[in-house]
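Thread title: Can someone regenerate the structure for this chain?

I was given the following input by a collaborator and told the matching structure tokens would be attached. They weren't. Posting the sequence so someone can regenerate them.
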Amino acid sequence: QVQLVESGGGLVQAGGSLRLSCAPSGRTFSSYVMGWFRQAPGKEREFVAAISWSRGNTYYADSVKGRFTISRDNAKNTVYLQMNSLKPEDTAVYYCAADPGELISINRSGYRYWGQGTQVSVSS
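Best answer:
Regenerated them for you:
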């Protein structure tokens, strides 16, 4: 059974940085697309960033482009989301997601597996 475990969330002041990690278990994800989504209170879950594990292609939401970086470590079988210049509007629960294949999707329906989420809070 595939499980995605996120870590690295927390409370940070505006302008600060956090790094989220997603460690899939149950298999290696060498032929998967890995994505990060977030959901703020009262809002829909939205796409943040994604990476094709095999090709290394990345894609970002406009709201985080230039501030967030998604990457993967093959040796550790882990995906990271480095978040810099954080803003209060980045406050949300962040979810790691995965789907077999190489084509990046920005839609929730494009991902088969989901983690439990990790809270990121940015104070002003």
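The mean pLDDT is 94.
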